[in-house]
Amino acid sequence: MARPRPTARAVVVGVAVLVLLLAAVLGPTLLDDQAGKVDVLSARQGSSSAHWLGTDDLGRDIFARTVVATRLSLELSLAAALLAALVGFPLGALAGVLGPRARRAVGRVISVAVAFPAILVALFVCAIMGAGSKSAVIAMAIALTPIFARVAQTLAAAIATSDYMDNARVVGIGPRRLLWRYVLPNAAEPLISVTMVAAASALIVLSALSFLGLGVRPPQYDWGAMLSDGLERLYTTPVAALAPAVAIVFAGIVFTLVGEELARLANPMARRAAGPRRAARTTRDDAGAPAPRSAPAPAADDAAAAHADDAALVAAVADLEVTIGGGATRPVRGVSLAVAPGEVVGVVGESGSGKSMTALALSRLLPPSASVSASELRVAGVDLRRRPAAATRKHLATALGMVFQNPMSSLNPALRIGTQVTEASEVHLGLSRAEARQRAIARLTEVGIADAPERLRQHPHEWSGGMQQRAMIAAALMTDPRLIVADEPTTALDVTVQKQILELLKDTRERDGVAVLLISHDLGVVAEICDRVLVMYAGELVEEGLAADVLRAPLHPYPRALLASIPRLDTPRGEDLATIPGQPPAADADIVGCPFAPRCAHAREACGAQRPRLAEHRPAHRAACLRIGELESDPMNDGAVSIKAVGA
Amino acid sequence: MSTIASTAPPAPRARGAARATRRSPWLGWIGRRLVQLALGVVFVATAAFFILRLLPGDPARTIAGVDARPETVAHLRASLGLDRSLPAQYVSYLGDVARLDFGQSFSSHRDVTALIGDRLLGTLLLAGLACAVMLVVGVAVGMVAGAATEGGRRPRVEMAFGFGNGLLASLPEFVTGVFLVYVFGVTLGWLPIAGRGGPDSWVLPVLALAIAPTAALARIVRLETVRVLATDYVRAARGHRLPARLLYLRHALPNLLTSALTIGGLLFAGLLGSTVVVENVFAWPGLGTLVVEAIETRDYPVIEGAVFVLGVMVLVINTLVDAALAWLDPRLLTETA
User: Which of A68, B6, B126, B233 could form a disulfide with A35 if both were Cys (CB 3.0 to 4.6 A apart)?
Assistant: First the structure.
């Protein structure tokens, strides 16, 4: 059987455990004489071949004493941890299966008990039982019991209500098998972890008790007792204190590491993930990145020509490439687009088509693992291909507003709405707090928030999702931007609220002349407010044109198929809806020809070999398809009918 | 959460409800917490009460010693009130505790309350200073490390940080204390190693207490920083092109603080326990040295008083930490605990 090779870490931990075990098992047998031999003549010696770590005040060998003390130190702490486990686990498991009220009450008691420092509880028990190793172990066990109870309670509750337990019960698996096959494997990892963590803390607190003179008493000695003796003679024989100190730290770390390793072995998922992590080399905004392997989409020339009046455009992008993790994944492959002032441009595509990545690249908000290259990347006249200077950053900040998909998570839960709406105008426009507040009230009222002055003081959780999105839009409008990039602004909202938000964006454009780049997977949303529409597929633009043209008479088979898949009132009942068979290619796939060819009803051999260029087939209406000429002669509904409808 | 169609003016009832949720939650929360705190104090007092009563055998005999004369034992028993029924003892004990009367020390014959009063401030200041160091340094180091390793950047820095942190976090406070005394007291001779004197006498005890919890806190804060920097709201704040200062301090920090303070609160309670031990490393006049001496000399009135005060301190700290958490995250206020 091929066992996975142990990791370097596991080997180190194994060796460390072996060292501890050898010291504990053999130490007292081999070195006891040396450790106990009083030899005043050779007291307080430094390191020598006879005494590796020198000798203490009575001439006893410090190395031998430290090794001999291993057994007692480990025995006592493991005994305390096991005792605590034996008491704590049943207690907690019992509490876990109680009724809800009793469970909550017991839970409260356990959390108060867990919050009590173990050493204080141990001191309390020692006060009753007196000093000595037996009372120290019992004290420690009592102090650690709540930790085990807490873990057992949580586990019992989680496992008892889990889906896999329900399933197992439904298929009639007996209680014993249930325990061995279902409960224990799922409980093993946390049980092992908590036991080793408890053993480590038992070791430390027991050492502390001995250090305080309340634990192990002479003539016995553990590391804590040695440390206490050594501290008094720190000026004469410091090693006598430092050796047991190092031993305590070493053993504590070994306990913790053993717990982690055992937990890893018990958890198959973690074990698989424990392989060498691929270091994701990341370069942010790396304009000078090596040219992408495939030639940029051939739209470059056309785009450049179309963008001749660049200065007037609020956004101009050419040959945008986004790569993740050093180039393996390419979610955006050579996209070019332009947004004129006051224009509403929609970008549509399925999830994974690269539309959101395009929006984030345009606003320099991609995560650090992504890198961007483009022959042109300009927003409001600012070249974003390299990090802009401070002044241009300020210009960009005021000229570009962002609205994100999920207003619930895009508003900071810890800050008042007012702060979040006003801060950009305070920072970038230099408004005073009062001015910014007045402006925020005006903007919020514009976007339909009643009671704005009062509402500003509230936190996001006091607002509904629709209101939160209105607040996001108001915040984006605070600096009088020229472009708002709205990434799926209505997806997370109810249908009625969606409609309101779209109306709001439309009004905003009409009132303030703001351009909007609207990213959406929803053709209906795009149809509602866009002047122009871009269709993305597999990181590339496949069609672009006026919204009316693209949505009413698409050229490319992909948007044709998309439109055909929308149910209409006049779709005959009982007829299956057209769907597009297959899946879009993965973002790390190498695509030679047309990315849509494998799913296209009209694909010919050439489609798989030659990359189609985005070309103008009707006035201001461009598509990237080799067969447009032939398809164009077909009536529009041909496209819809000829889709390979699944199940038809 | 009510979905108010905000094109229409909100109904008066909804507005009233919004106002009510803004004022009442603290009152209810404080009420609940005070009841819990009171229950906790009674529990701690009960535990202190039983220290003496749970002594093996006859407590009066145990305290007086095996060779004490019967009259002495009887006298001691009467003076401790051990001759009365347990419920009667309990009621009068609770009354004494309410008046902060813990009786007289067996050994010094001083008022236990006065003894504790002398020592309390030393312990509180030590633990409080260590806690302040832990919070400031732990959060700062964790955030810097988190910002540096955000989104899987600089895996080497992340590894080095994890290793150093793990090592420091696993140093027990008394071991750290011994190391510090050896390096800065014995070897370098820079700082005093025992007793409470000038400002320099505070350095080593505070450091000994703070190092391990600071490292533990920094680890959590780094993880949380990485998590928070990847959230939608930080992306939205980046979309506003805020300067780094606002991005980290205003947007990231409050969202880190909830978990940092949860961990910090647990660590703070633990710090109180560590203080008891560290005081004994540095011969520091505090509750820790007091209670350990008292246990060694079987000075039960002092043990009872010190155990009570330490227990109440833990309860108060936990309550204050919860209050801070609720202040940071108002959603906690309305949650039924």
Answer: A68
Token pair for B184: 């800065």
Shortest Cα–Cα distance, B4 to chain A (Å): 7
Burial class of B312 by CB neighbour count within 10 A (0 to 12, 13 to 18, 19+): middle
Closest-CA residue of A relative to B256 is A414
Instruction: Name A507's Cβ contacts closer than 8 Å, sequence gap at least 6.
Output: none
- Taking CA atoms, A397 is separated from A284, B137, B160, in Å, by 19, 33, 36
* Cβ proximity of A421 and A438 under 8 Å: no
CA–CA separation, B171 vs B278, rounded Å? Answer: 13
Query: What one-character DSSP code corresponds to residue A5?
Result: P
Question: Higher confidence at residue A642 or residue A64?
Answer: A64
Q: How far apart are CA A349 and CA A584, in angstroms?
A: 11
Bridge-based pairing state of the strands A540-546 and A329-339: unpaired
d(C-alpha B198, C-alpha B205), whole Å: 13
pLDDT at A630 over 80: no
The token duo for A17 is: 């455990």
Query: What's the half-sphere exposure (Cβ side, CA atoms, 13 Å) at A462?
Result: 23
Tell me the chain B residues in contact with residue A213 when contact means C-beta distances shorter than 8 Å.
292, 296
Q: How far apart are CA A622 and CA A639, in angstroms?
A: 17
For residue B160, the model assigns a pLDDT of 87
Structure ipTM? 0.83
Q: What is the dihedral of CA B149, B154, B156, B158, to 10 degrees?
A: 10
| Mean pLDDT (whole number) for A206-228 | 86
Beta-strand ranges (E) seen in A178-268 are none
Q: How confident is the model at residue B41 (pLDDT cuts 50, 70, 90)?
A: very high
The structure tokens listed for B174 are: 């008394």
Q: Comparing A648 with A311, which gets the higher pLDDT? A: A311
Measure the CA–CA gap between A64 and A501, rounded to whole angstroms: 78
* Segment holding A545, helix H or strand E: strand A540-546
Q: Which residues in chain B are closer than 8 Å to A400, comparing Cβ atoms?
A: 239
Structure tokens at B229: 């920097």
Quick: pLDDT tens for A552-594: 888 888 888 888 877 766 666 666 667 787 888 888 888 888 8
CB A316 within 8 A of CB A517: no
- For residue A593, how many other CB atoms are within 10 A of its CB? 17
Give the pLDDT of residue A599: 86
Q: Look up the pTM and report it.
A: 0.77
State the pLDDT at residue A572: 67
Shortest CA gap A590–chain B (Å): 26
Residue spans of the domains in chain B: they are 45-99, 112-335
Predicted confidence band of residue B24 (pLDDT cuts 50, 70, 90): low
Q: What dihedral do alpha carbons A27, A28, A32, A34 form, nearest 10°?
A: 10
Distance of CA B308 to the CA centre of its chain: 15
φ and ψ at residue A536, rounded to 5 degrees: -110, 145
Cα→Cα distances A162→A103, A156, A269, B84, Å: 17, 10, 18, 54
Question: Between chains, do A253 and B55 touch, taking CB under 8 Å as contact?
Answer: no
Out of A368, A397, A423, name the one closest to residue B150 (CB). Answer: A368
CATH of domain B112-335: 1.10.3720.10
